[in-house]
Amino acid sequence: MAPEIIQNKGASKSSDIYAIGAVLYEFLTGQPPYYNEDIPRLYRNIKEGKLTFPNNVSKEAKNLMIV
Q1: 14 touches 4 (CB < 8 A)
Q2: What is the C-alpha to C-alpha distance for residues 21 and 26, in angstroms, rounded to an integer?
């Protein structure tokens, strides 16, 4: 879920691009970005936007994801 949707600002083209990025991240790592079983914490993680990658993801792949 894109940050603007969590903040009740509605969906836009940027929400769709965010969703594509989230799917690519999950393909790459095996887990959704910002994953946390605690939903309020998950939403906070999404809004803060501090994305991390597991150590097994190459530097090249990380650079492609963070544009």
Answers
A1: yes
A2: 9
